[in-house]
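Need L-arabinose ABC transporter ATP-binding protein AraG's 3D structure for a figure. Predict it.
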Amino acid sequence: MSEAAAARFDSPESPPLLALSGIVVEFPGVKALRGVDLDVRAGSVHGLMGENGAGKSTLLKVMSGVNIPRSGTIRVDGQELSFRGAADALEAGIAIIYQELHLVPGLSAAENLMLGQLPSRMGLIDRKALRARAEAVLRDLGEDIDPSTPVGRLSIGQRQMVEIGKALLREARIIAFDEPTSSLSAREVENLKRIVRRLRDEGRAIVYVTHRMAELFELCDAVTVFRDGARVAHHPTMETVTQDRLVTEMVGRAIEDIYGWSPRPVGEVVAAIDGLTGPGLRAPVSFNVRAGEIVGFFGLVGAGRTELMRLLCGTERATGGSVTLRGKALRMGSPRRAIEAGIAMCPEDRKREGIFPIASVNDNINISVRRRYARAGLVDFAREKQNAIRAIRDLDVRTASGETQIRTLSGGNQQKAILGRWLSEKIELFVLDEPTRGIDVGARAQIYKILYDLAEKGIGVIVVSSDLPEVSSICDRVLVMADGRLTADVPRDEITPERLLGHALPQ
Ligand SMILES: Nc1ncnc2c1ncn2[C@@H]1O[C@H](COP(=O)(O)OP(=O)(O)OP(=O)(O)O)[C@@H](O)[C@H]1O
Ligand SMILES: [Mg+2]
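Structure prediction for L-arabinose ABC transporter ATP-binding protein AraG:
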Protein backbone atom coordinates (compact mmCIF):
# COMPACT_ATOMS: atom_id res chain seq x y z
CA MET A 1 0.00 0.00 0.00
CA SER A 2 1.32 3.44 -0.77
CA GLU A 3 1.92 5.65 2.22
CA ALA A 4 -0.63 8.13 1.04
CA ALA A 5 -3.23 5.39 0.85
CA ALA A 6 -2.28 4.18 4.29
CA ALA A 7 -2.66 7.61 5.78
CA ARG A 8 -5.92 8.17 4.04
CA PHE A 9 -7.69 4.98 4.98
CA ASP A 10 -6.10 3.49 7.94
CA SER A 11 -3.75 3.92 10.78
CA PRO A 12 -2.34 1.27 13.06
CA GLU A 13 -4.50 2.61 15.91
CA SER A 14 -7.77 2.37 14.04
CA PRO A 15 -9.50 -1.01 14.13
CA PRO A 16 -9.08 -3.15 11.05
CA LEU A 17 -12.00 -2.90 8.65
CA LEU A 18 -12.57 -6.63 9.01
CA ALA A 19 -11.60 -8.59 12.10
CA LEU A 20 -12.29 -12.27 12.52
CA SER A 21 -11.35 -13.89 15.77
CA GLY A 22 -11.49 -17.38 17.17
CA ILE A 23 -13.42 -18.72 14.21
CA VAL A 24 -14.30 -22.41 14.51
CA VAL A 25 -16.02 -24.31 11.69
CA GLU A 26 -16.75 -28.01 11.81
CA PHE A 27 -18.13 -30.40 9.25
CA PRO A 28 -18.96 -34.02 10.01
CA GLY A 29 -15.59 -35.63 10.66
CA VAL A 30 -13.60 -32.49 9.79
CA LYS A 31 -12.47 -29.54 11.87
CA ALA A 32 -12.10 -27.12 8.99
CA LEU A 33 -11.15 -24.09 11.14
CA ARG A 34 -9.83 -24.38 14.68
CA GLY A 35 -10.12 -20.91 16.13
CA VAL A 36 -8.71 -18.66 13.44
CA ASP A 37 -7.94 -14.93 13.64
CA LEU A 38 -7.66 -12.59 10.69
CA ASP A 39 -7.40 -8.78 10.58
CA VAL A 40 -7.75 -7.04 7.27
CA ARG A 41 -7.08 -3.32 6.94
CA ALA A 42 -8.74 -0.89 4.60
CA GLY A 43 -6.60 0.04 1.61
CA SER A 44 -4.62 -3.19 1.68
CA VAL A 45 -4.49 -6.57 -0.03
CA HIS A 46 -4.22 -9.40 2.46
CA GLY A 47 -2.94 -12.68 1.02
CA LEU A 48 -4.05 -16.06 2.33
CA MET A 49 -1.90 -19.09 1.64
CA GLY A 50 -2.02 -22.68 2.75
CA GLU A 51 -2.08 -26.26 1.63
CA ASN A 52 -5.08 -27.76 -0.11
CA GLY A 53 -7.71 -28.31 2.53
CA ALA A 54 -6.10 -25.89 4.99
CA GLY A 55 -9.38 -23.98 5.31
CA LYS A 56 -8.93 -20.90 3.12
CA SER A 57 -12.17 -21.23 1.17
CA THR A 58 -14.01 -22.14 4.34
CA LEU A 59 -12.84 -18.90 5.96
CA LEU A 60 -14.05 -16.91 2.98
CA LYS A 61 -17.41 -18.61 3.29
CA VAL A 62 -17.53 -17.54 6.92
CA MET A 63 -16.95 -13.96 5.82
CA SER A 64 -19.78 -14.26 3.34
CA GLY A 65 -22.28 -15.80 5.74
CA VAL A 66 -22.40 -19.13 3.89
CA ASN A 67 -20.60 -21.10 6.60
CA ILE A 68 -21.88 -20.26 10.05
CA PRO A 69 -19.09 -20.68 12.58
CA ARG A 70 -19.68 -22.73 15.72
CA SER A 71 -17.86 -20.02 17.64
CA GLY A 72 -15.84 -16.88 17.07
CA THR A 73 -16.65 -13.29 16.20
CA ILE A 74 -16.83 -11.21 13.07
CA ARG A 75 -16.30 -7.47 13.35
CA VAL A 76 -16.66 -4.90 10.61
CA ASP A 77 -15.36 -1.46 11.51
CA GLY A 78 -15.09 -2.56 15.09
CA GLN A 79 -18.71 -3.57 15.32
CA GLU A 80 -19.57 -7.17 16.08
CA LEU A 81 -21.97 -8.77 13.61
CA SER A 82 -23.60 -12.12 13.42
CA PHE A 83 -24.43 -13.53 10.02
CA ARG A 84 -27.37 -15.82 9.57
CA GLY A 85 -26.88 -16.11 5.85
CA ALA A 86 -25.33 -14.61 2.76
CA ALA A 87 -27.69 -11.63 2.71
CA ASP A 88 -26.38 -10.42 6.09
CA ALA A 89 -22.80 -10.42 4.87
CA LEU A 90 -23.78 -8.50 1.75
CA GLU A 91 -25.58 -6.01 3.89
CA ALA A 92 -22.36 -5.56 5.87
CA GLY A 93 -20.50 -4.79 2.65
CA ILE A 94 -18.65 -8.07 2.17
CA ALA A 95 -18.48 -9.73 -1.25
CA ILE A 96 -16.68 -12.91 -2.29
CA ILE A 97 -15.45 -13.80 -5.74
CA TYR A 98 -15.50 -17.58 -5.48
CA GLN A 99 -13.29 -20.31 -6.93
CA GLU A 100 -16.30 -21.33 -9.02
CA LEU A 101 -18.28 -18.43 -10.34
CA HIS A 102 -21.93 -18.10 -9.49
CA LEU A 103 -23.58 -16.31 -12.39
CA VAL A 104 -26.72 -17.26 -14.28
CA PRO A 105 -25.49 -18.35 -17.74
CA GLY A 106 -28.72 -17.61 -19.61
CA LEU A 107 -28.98 -14.00 -18.42
CA SER A 108 -27.00 -11.16 -19.90
CA ALA A 109 -24.03 -9.57 -18.17
CA ALA A 110 -26.11 -6.51 -17.23
CA GLU A 111 -29.00 -8.64 -15.93
CA ASN A 112 -26.62 -10.66 -13.79
CA LEU A 113 -25.31 -7.43 -12.33
CA MET A 114 -28.79 -6.24 -11.57
CA LEU A 115 -29.61 -9.53 -9.87
CA GLY A 116 -26.92 -8.52 -7.46
CA GLN A 117 -29.14 -5.78 -6.12
CA LEU A 118 -31.06 -6.72 -3.05
CA PRO A 119 -34.59 -7.75 -4.04
CA SER A 120 -36.16 -5.52 -1.40
CA ARG A 121 -34.61 -2.49 -3.02
CA MET A 122 -35.50 -3.65 -6.50
CA GLY A 123 -39.04 -2.27 -6.40
CA LEU A 124 -37.87 1.20 -5.48
CA ILE A 125 -35.11 1.47 -7.98
CA ASP A 126 -35.54 2.75 -11.48
CA ARG A 127 -34.57 -0.25 -13.63
CA LYS A 128 -33.36 1.97 -16.41
CA ALA A 129 -31.03 3.88 -14.13
CA LEU A 130 -29.84 0.62 -12.67
CA ARG A 131 -29.06 -0.80 -16.10
CA ALA A 132 -27.15 2.35 -16.97
CA ARG A 133 -25.09 1.95 -13.82
CA ALA A 134 -24.50 -1.72 -14.50
CA GLU A 135 -23.24 -0.85 -17.96
CA ALA A 136 -21.00 1.88 -16.62
CA VAL A 137 -19.51 -0.49 -14.05
CA LEU A 138 -18.80 -3.08 -16.75
CA ARG A 139 -17.15 -0.54 -19.02
CA ASP A 140 -15.01 0.57 -16.18
CA LEU A 141 -13.71 -2.92 -15.49
CA GLY A 142 -12.14 -3.34 -18.92
CA GLU A 143 -12.40 -6.70 -20.69
CA ASP A 144 -14.66 -5.11 -23.26
CA ILE A 145 -17.90 -6.77 -22.20
CA ASP A 146 -21.06 -6.13 -24.15
CA PRO A 147 -23.67 -5.79 -21.38
CA SER A 148 -26.30 -7.65 -23.43
CA THR A 149 -24.17 -10.78 -24.02
CA PRO A 150 -25.45 -13.87 -22.20
CA VAL A 151 -22.95 -14.69 -19.49
CA GLY A 152 -22.63 -18.25 -20.82
CA ARG A 153 -20.85 -16.81 -23.85
CA LEU A 154 -18.30 -14.77 -21.91
CA SER A 155 -14.77 -15.98 -21.18
CA ILE A 156 -13.90 -16.93 -17.61
CA GLY A 157 -12.07 -13.65 -17.17
CA GLN A 158 -15.05 -11.66 -18.37
CA ARG A 159 -17.40 -13.58 -16.08
CA GLN A 160 -15.13 -12.82 -13.19
CA MET A 161 -15.35 -9.14 -14.06
CA VAL A 162 -19.15 -9.42 -13.95
CA GLU A 163 -18.82 -10.91 -10.46
CA ILE A 164 -16.57 -8.05 -9.43
CA GLY A 165 -19.06 -5.66 -10.98
CA LYS A 166 -21.77 -7.13 -8.77
CA ALA A 167 -19.64 -6.48 -5.72
CA LEU A 168 -19.07 -2.89 -6.81
CA LEU A 169 -22.73 -2.22 -7.50
CA ARG A 170 -23.46 -3.34 -3.97
CA GLU A 171 -20.76 -1.00 -2.76
CA ALA A 172 -18.87 -3.79 -1.06
CA ARG A 173 -16.03 -2.47 1.09
CA ILE A 174 -14.50 -5.85 1.70
CA ILE A 175 -13.88 -8.06 -1.31
CA ALA A 176 -12.36 -11.51 -1.09
CA PHE A 177 -10.97 -13.43 -4.07
CA ASP A 178 -10.56 -17.21 -4.04
CA GLU A 179 -7.77 -18.23 -6.45
CA PRO A 180 -9.03 -15.75 -9.02
CA THR A 181 -6.31 -16.24 -11.63
CA SER A 182 -6.34 -20.01 -11.81
CA SER A 183 -8.29 -20.19 -15.09
CA LEU A 184 -7.40 -16.85 -16.65
CA SER A 185 -5.36 -16.11 -19.75
CA ALA A 186 -2.17 -14.09 -19.29
CA ARG A 187 -3.86 -10.91 -20.48
CA GLU A 188 -6.87 -11.44 -18.22
CA VAL A 189 -4.51 -11.93 -15.28
CA GLU A 190 -2.96 -8.53 -15.95
CA ASN A 191 -6.37 -6.88 -16.07
CA LEU A 192 -7.40 -8.57 -12.84
CA LYS A 193 -4.27 -7.37 -11.05
CA ARG A 194 -4.94 -3.85 -12.24
CA ILE A 195 -8.49 -4.02 -10.88
CA VAL A 196 -7.37 -5.46 -7.54
CA ARG A 197 -4.86 -2.64 -7.11
CA ARG A 198 -7.50 -0.10 -7.97
CA LEU A 199 -9.99 -1.52 -5.48
CA ARG A 200 -7.28 -1.35 -2.85
CA ASP A 201 -6.37 2.23 -3.70
CA GLU A 202 -10.03 3.18 -3.39
CA GLY A 203 -9.72 2.12 0.24
CA ARG A 204 -11.37 -1.27 0.16
CA ALA A 205 -10.03 -4.20 2.12
CA ILE A 206 -9.06 -7.06 -0.18
CA VAL A 207 -8.55 -10.68 0.82
CA TYR A 208 -6.67 -12.67 -1.78
CA VAL A 209 -6.31 -16.46 -1.75
CA THR A 210 -3.65 -17.85 -4.07
CA HIS A 211 -1.25 -20.74 -4.56
CA ARG A 212 0.93 -18.64 -6.83
CA MET A 213 3.92 -17.16 -5.04
CA ALA A 214 4.80 -14.64 -7.71
CA GLU A 215 1.30 -13.20 -7.56
CA LEU A 216 1.37 -13.01 -3.81
CA PHE A 217 4.55 -10.97 -3.78
CA GLU A 218 3.34 -8.71 -6.57
CA LEU A 219 -0.06 -7.88 -5.10
CA CYS A 220 -0.20 -8.38 -1.38
CA ASP A 221 0.65 -6.04 1.47
CA ALA A 222 0.38 -8.71 4.17
CA VAL A 223 0.03 -12.48 4.25
CA THR A 224 -1.44 -15.05 6.59
CA VAL A 225 -0.57 -18.73 6.30
CA PHE A 226 -2.94 -21.54 7.24
CA ARG A 227 -2.24 -25.14 7.94
CA ASP A 228 -4.77 -27.75 8.83
CA GLY A 229 -7.46 -25.31 9.93
CA ALA A 230 -5.16 -23.10 11.99
CA ARG A 231 -3.30 -19.90 11.39
CA VAL A 232 0.38 -20.80 11.53
CA ALA A 233 1.96 -17.50 10.53
CA HIS A 234 1.08 -13.90 9.93
CA HIS A 235 3.30 -11.35 8.21
CA PRO A 236 1.98 -7.78 8.44
CA THR A 237 4.39 -6.73 5.71
CA MET A 238 5.88 -8.55 2.75
CA GLU A 239 9.25 -6.92 3.21
CA THR A 240 10.57 -9.47 5.65
CA VAL A 241 9.08 -12.57 4.02
CA THR A 242 10.79 -14.92 1.60
CA GLN A 243 9.28 -17.54 -0.65
CA ASP A 244 11.17 -20.35 1.12
CA ARG A 245 9.93 -19.22 4.47
CA LEU A 246 6.31 -19.23 3.29
CA VAL A 247 6.67 -22.70 1.80
CA THR A 248 8.10 -23.99 5.06
CA GLU A 249 5.26 -22.42 7.03
CA MET A 250 2.68 -23.87 4.67
CA VAL A 251 3.82 -27.45 4.57
CA GLY A 252 5.56 -27.60 7.92
CA ARG A 253 8.93 -28.52 6.42
CA ALA A 254 11.40 -27.09 3.95
CA ILE A 255 11.13 -28.26 0.36
CA GLU A 256 14.51 -28.00 -1.28
CA ASP A 257 13.40 -28.31 -4.85
CA ILE A 258 9.72 -28.78 -5.58
CA TYR A 259 10.49 -29.90 -9.13
CA GLY A 260 13.11 -32.53 -8.28
CA TRP A 261 13.77 -33.54 -11.89
CA SER A 262 16.60 -35.90 -12.72
CA PRO A 263 17.57 -37.54 -16.02
CA ARG A 264 15.90 -40.80 -16.93
CA PRO A 265 16.45 -43.33 -19.71
CA VAL A 266 14.13 -42.85 -22.65
CA GLY A 267 13.00 -45.81 -24.76
CA GLU A 268 10.95 -46.68 -27.83
CA VAL A 269 8.21 -44.50 -29.25
CA VAL A 270 5.05 -45.17 -27.23
CA ALA A 271 2.70 -42.90 -29.09
CA ALA A 272 3.05 -41.60 -32.63
CA ILE A 273 0.67 -38.84 -33.62
CA ASP A 274 0.67 -38.19 -37.33
CA GLY A 275 -1.08 -35.40 -39.18
CA LEU A 276 -3.92 -35.05 -36.68
CA THR A 277 -6.60 -32.58 -37.70
CA GLY A 278 -9.89 -31.62 -36.13
CA PRO A 279 -11.80 -28.90 -34.31
CA GLY A 280 -9.51 -26.33 -32.71
CA LEU A 281 -6.49 -27.15 -34.91
CA ARG A 282 -5.52 -24.90 -37.81
CA ALA A 283 -2.81 -27.20 -39.21
CA PRO A 284 -2.12 -30.96 -38.99
CA VAL A 285 -0.19 -31.89 -35.84
CA SER A 286 2.48 -34.61 -35.66
CA PHE A 287 4.73 -35.63 -32.76
CA ASN A 288 6.03 -38.65 -30.87
CA VAL A 289 6.18 -39.50 -27.20
CA ARG A 290 8.76 -42.06 -26.06
CA ALA A 291 8.67 -44.47 -23.18
CA GLY A 292 9.89 -42.73 -20.04
CA GLU A 293 9.56 -39.31 -21.55
CA ILE A 294 7.66 -36.37 -20.08
CA VAL A 295 6.59 -34.07 -22.88
CA GLY A 296 5.25 -30.63 -22.02
CA PHE A 297 2.76 -28.68 -24.08
CA PHE A 298 3.13 -24.98 -23.48
CA GLY A 299 1.02 -22.22 -24.98
CA LEU A 300 -1.29 -19.38 -24.11
CA VAL A 301 -4.90 -20.11 -23.20
CA GLY A 302 -6.70 -20.84 -26.48
CA ALA A 303 -3.62 -22.11 -28.35
CA GLY A 304 -5.35 -25.43 -29.10
CA ARG A 305 -3.60 -27.67 -26.59
CA THR A 306 -6.74 -28.89 -24.82
CA GLU A 307 -8.44 -29.45 -28.19
CA LEU A 308 -5.46 -31.51 -29.38
CA MET A 309 -5.59 -33.67 -26.25
CA ARG A 310 -9.31 -34.18 -26.66
CA LEU A 311 -8.71 -35.49 -30.18
CA LEU A 312 -5.94 -37.75 -28.93
CA CYS A 313 -8.11 -39.15 -26.14
CA GLY A 314 -11.18 -39.59 -28.30
CA THR A 315 -13.44 -37.12 -26.51
CA GLU A 316 -13.55 -35.15 -29.75
CA ARG A 317 -13.67 -36.61 -33.25
CA ALA A 318 -10.60 -36.06 -35.45
CA THR A 319 -11.16 -35.21 -39.11
CA GLY A 320 -7.86 -36.74 -40.22
CA GLY A 321 -4.53 -38.20 -39.21
CA SER A 322 -3.64 -41.16 -37.04
CA VAL A 323 -2.54 -42.14 -33.55
CA THR A 324 -0.37 -45.23 -33.12
CA LEU A 325 0.21 -46.71 -29.67
CA ARG A 326 3.12 -49.11 -29.32
CA GLY A 327 2.90 -49.80 -33.05
CA LYS A 328 -0.86 -50.42 -33.09
CA ALA A 329 -3.17 -48.00 -34.83
CA LEU A 330 -5.76 -46.57 -32.47
CA ARG A 331 -9.31 -46.53 -33.76
CA MET A 332 -10.06 -42.96 -32.94
CA GLY A 333 -13.08 -41.00 -31.79
CA SER A 334 -14.00 -43.01 -28.71
CA PRO A 335 -12.75 -42.34 -25.20
CA ARG A 336 -13.48 -45.95 -24.26
CA ARG A 337 -11.27 -47.33 -27.03
CA ALA A 338 -8.56 -44.85 -26.08
CA ILE A 339 -8.66 -46.02 -22.45
CA GLU A 340 -8.63 -49.67 -23.52
CA ALA A 341 -5.61 -48.97 -25.71
CA GLY A 342 -3.84 -47.53 -22.67
CA ILE A 343 -4.37 -43.78 -22.84
CA ALA A 344 -5.28 -42.14 -19.55
CA MET A 345 -6.58 -38.60 -19.42
CA CYS A 346 -6.74 -36.17 -16.55
CA PRO A 347 -8.85 -33.32 -17.91
CA GLU A 348 -8.46 -29.63 -17.36
CA ASP A 349 -12.00 -28.89 -16.32
CA ARG A 350 -12.54 -31.22 -13.41
CA LYS A 351 -15.91 -29.66 -12.60
CA ARG A 352 -17.36 -30.57 -15.98
CA GLU A 353 -15.53 -33.69 -17.09
CA GLY A 354 -13.50 -34.88 -14.16
CA ILE A 355 -15.59 -35.62 -11.11
CA PHE A 356 -18.90 -37.12 -10.12
CA PRO A 357 -19.61 -34.60 -7.37
CA ILE A 358 -22.12 -36.43 -5.23
CA ALA A 359 -20.36 -39.80 -5.56
CA SER A 360 -17.87 -40.83 -2.89
CA VAL A 361 -14.13 -40.32 -3.10
CA ASN A 362 -13.75 -44.11 -3.47
CA ASP A 363 -16.19 -44.29 -6.36
CA ASN A 364 -14.52 -41.38 -8.08
CA ILE A 365 -11.18 -43.15 -7.84
CA ASN A 366 -12.57 -46.47 -9.01
CA ILE A 367 -14.64 -45.24 -11.88
CA SER A 368 -12.00 -46.19 -14.46
CA VAL A 369 -11.17 -49.59 -13.02
CA ARG A 370 -14.70 -50.67 -12.31
CA ARG A 371 -14.83 -52.95 -15.31
CA ARG A 372 -11.59 -54.64 -14.44
CA TYR A 373 -12.56 -55.24 -10.84
CA ALA A 374 -15.99 -56.49 -11.77
CA ARG A 375 -15.91 -60.27 -12.00
CA ALA A 376 -18.76 -61.95 -13.83
CA GLY A 377 -20.59 -58.69 -13.85
CA LEU A 378 -20.37 -58.18 -10.10
CA VAL A 379 -18.44 -55.31 -8.61
CA ASP A 380 -15.63 -56.54 -6.37
CA PHE A 381 -16.10 -54.05 -3.56
CA ALA A 382 -13.24 -55.35 -1.46
CA ARG A 383 -10.72 -54.84 -4.24
CA GLU A 384 -12.13 -51.46 -5.10
CA LYS A 385 -11.81 -50.40 -1.52
CA GLN A 386 -8.18 -51.53 -1.41
CA ASN A 387 -7.49 -49.67 -4.61
CA ALA A 388 -9.00 -46.47 -3.25
CA ILE A 389 -7.17 -46.77 0.07
CA ARG A 390 -3.91 -47.05 -1.81
CA ALA A 391 -4.62 -44.08 -4.05
CA ILE A 392 -5.69 -41.91 -1.10
CA ARG A 393 -2.51 -42.84 0.74
CA ASP A 394 -0.11 -42.50 -2.19
CA LEU A 395 -1.48 -39.13 -3.20
CA ASP A 396 -2.10 -37.90 0.31
CA VAL A 397 -5.72 -37.03 -0.43
CA ARG A 398 -7.05 -35.20 2.61
CA THR A 399 -10.50 -36.63 3.20
CA ALA A 400 -12.41 -37.68 6.30
CA SER A 401 -12.95 -41.09 4.69
CA GLY A 402 -13.26 -42.84 1.35
CA GLU A 403 -17.03 -42.68 1.68
CA THR A 404 -17.09 -38.87 1.83
CA GLN A 405 -18.76 -37.14 -1.13
CA ILE A 406 -15.97 -35.79 -3.29
CA ARG A 407 -17.62 -32.38 -3.67
CA THR A 408 -16.94 -31.62 -0.01
CA LEU A 409 -13.16 -31.96 -0.49
CA SER A 410 -11.07 -28.86 -1.06
CA GLY A 411 -10.34 -28.10 -4.71
CA GLY A 412 -6.81 -29.42 -4.68
CA ASN A 413 -7.76 -32.64 -2.95
CA GLN A 414 -10.44 -33.34 -5.57
CA GLN A 415 -7.74 -33.04 -8.20
CA LYS A 416 -5.45 -35.47 -6.38
CA ALA A 417 -8.26 -38.02 -6.06
CA ILE A 418 -8.88 -37.90 -9.80
CA LEU A 419 -5.20 -38.48 -10.49
CA GLY A 420 -5.44 -41.49 -8.21
CA ARG A 421 -7.83 -43.06 -10.67
CA TRP A 422 -5.04 -44.00 -13.01
CA LEU A 423 -2.39 -45.24 -10.64
CA SER A 424 -3.58 -48.84 -10.68
CA GLU A 425 -4.32 -48.93 -14.41
CA LYS A 426 -2.12 -50.40 -17.07
CA ILE A 427 -1.41 -47.34 -19.14
CA GLU A 428 0.95 -46.52 -21.97
CA LEU A 429 0.34 -42.82 -22.32
CA PHE A 430 -0.79 -40.47 -19.56
CA VAL A 431 -2.19 -37.14 -20.67
CA LEU A 432 -2.59 -34.47 -17.98
CA ASP A 433 -4.15 -31.12 -18.74
CA GLU A 434 -3.08 -28.45 -16.21
CA PRO A 435 -2.59 -31.06 -13.48
CA THR A 436 -1.40 -28.67 -10.79
CA ARG A 437 -3.87 -25.83 -11.22
CA GLY A 438 -5.05 -24.91 -7.74
CA ILE A 439 -2.60 -27.36 -6.13
CA ASP A 440 -0.43 -26.29 -3.21
CA VAL A 441 3.38 -26.51 -3.42
CA GLY A 442 3.71 -29.56 -1.21
CA ALA A 443 1.12 -31.50 -3.21
CA ARG A 444 2.69 -30.31 -6.44
CA ALA A 445 5.97 -31.87 -5.44
CA GLN A 446 4.09 -35.12 -4.76
CA ILE A 447 2.39 -35.02 -8.15
CA TYR A 448 5.68 -34.42 -9.97
CA LYS A 449 7.20 -37.35 -8.10
CA ILE A 450 4.32 -39.56 -9.25
CA LEU A 451 4.83 -38.48 -12.85
CA TYR A 452 8.55 -39.29 -12.63
CA ASP A 453 7.73 -42.71 -11.15
CA LEU A 454 5.29 -43.44 -13.98
CA ALA A 455 7.85 -42.33 -16.57
CA GLU A 456 10.47 -44.48 -14.86
CA LYS A 457 8.18 -47.46 -15.49
CA GLY A 458 8.24 -46.71 -19.21
CA ILE A 459 5.00 -44.77 -19.53
CA GLY A 460 4.90 -41.81 -21.90
CA VAL A 461 3.61 -38.67 -20.17
CA ILE A 462 2.12 -35.52 -21.71
CA VAL A 463 1.67 -32.49 -19.48
CA VAL A 464 -0.29 -29.53 -20.78
CA SER A 465 0.60 -26.53 -18.67
CA SER A 466 0.46 -22.76 -18.83
CA ASP A 467 2.83 -22.53 -15.89
CA LEU A 468 6.17 -21.58 -17.40
CA PRO A 469 8.38 -22.57 -14.45
CA GLU A 470 6.55 -25.90 -14.29
CA VAL A 471 6.94 -26.93 -17.95
CA SER A 472 10.53 -25.71 -17.96
CA SER A 473 11.39 -27.71 -14.87
CA ILE A 474 9.59 -31.04 -15.05
CA CYS A 475 9.59 -31.85 -18.78
CA ASP A 476 12.20 -33.60 -20.90
CA ARG A 477 11.00 -31.77 -23.98
CA VAL A 478 8.47 -29.00 -24.56
CA LEU A 479 6.24 -28.63 -27.58
CA VAL A 480 4.80 -25.16 -28.03
CA MET A 481 1.46 -24.32 -29.62
CA ALA A 482 0.05 -21.04 -30.82
CA ASP A 483 -3.14 -20.36 -32.67
CA GLY A 484 -4.06 -24.01 -33.34
CA ARG A 485 -0.60 -24.96 -34.62
CA LEU A 486 2.52 -26.64 -33.30
CA THR A 487 5.20 -23.94 -33.39
CA ALA A 488 8.25 -25.46 -31.69
CA ASP A 489 9.79 -28.61 -30.25
CA VAL A 490 12.35 -27.62 -27.63
CA PRO A 491 14.67 -30.16 -25.96
CA ARG A 492 15.25 -29.74 -22.24
CA ASP A 493 18.72 -28.23 -22.43
CA GLU A 494 17.51 -25.54 -24.82
CA ILE A 495 14.48 -24.46 -22.79
CA THR A 496 14.43 -20.81 -21.75
CA PRO A 497 11.38 -18.74 -20.79
CA GLU A 498 12.06 -16.36 -23.68
CA ARG A 499 12.18 -19.17 -26.19
CA LEU A 500 8.95 -20.82 -24.99
CA LEU A 501 7.09 -17.53 -24.79
CA GLY A 502 8.44 -16.42 -28.16
CA HIS A 503 6.92 -19.47 -29.85
CA ALA A 504 3.69 -19.20 -27.84
CA LEU A 505 2.74 -15.73 -29.02
CA PRO A 506 0.46 -15.72 -32.07
CA GLN A 507 2.49 -14.74 -35.16
N1 LIG B 1 -19.39 -28.59 2.83
C1 LIG B 1 -18.41 -29.32 3.38
N2 LIG B 1 -18.67 -30.51 3.96
C2 LIG B 1 -17.68 -31.24 4.52
N3 LIG B 1 -16.40 -30.86 4.57
C3 LIG B 1 -16.07 -29.70 4.01
C4 LIG B 1 -17.04 -28.86 3.38
N4 LIG B 1 -16.42 -27.75 2.92
C5 LIG B 1 -15.12 -27.89 3.24
N5 LIG B 1 -14.90 -29.06 3.90
C6 LIG B 1 -13.60 -29.53 4.42
O1 LIG B 1 -12.99 -28.48 5.13
C7 LIG B 1 -11.57 -28.50 4.93
C8 LIG B 1 -11.11 -27.16 4.41
O2 LIG B 1 -11.51 -27.01 3.07
P1 LIG B 1 -11.29 -25.69 2.21
O3 LIG B 1 -12.08 -25.85 0.97
O4 LIG B 1 -11.56 -24.52 3.07
O5 LIG B 1 -9.72 -25.76 1.88
P2 LIG B 1 -8.82 -24.75 1.03
O6 LIG B 1 -7.79 -24.24 1.95
O7 LIG B 1 -9.68 -23.77 0.33
O8 LIG B 1 -8.13 -25.74 -0.01
P3 LIG B 1 -7.78 -25.58 -1.60
O9 LIG B 1 -6.44 -24.91 -1.68
O10 LIG B 1 -7.64 -27.01 -2.07
O11 LIG B 1 -8.88 -24.85 -2.26
C9 LIG B 1 -11.29 -29.66 3.99
O12 LIG B 1 -10.92 -30.76 4.78
C10 LIG B 1 -12.61 -29.90 3.32
O13 LIG B 1 -12.74 -31.24 2.91
MG1 LIG C 1 -10.17 -23.48 -1.68
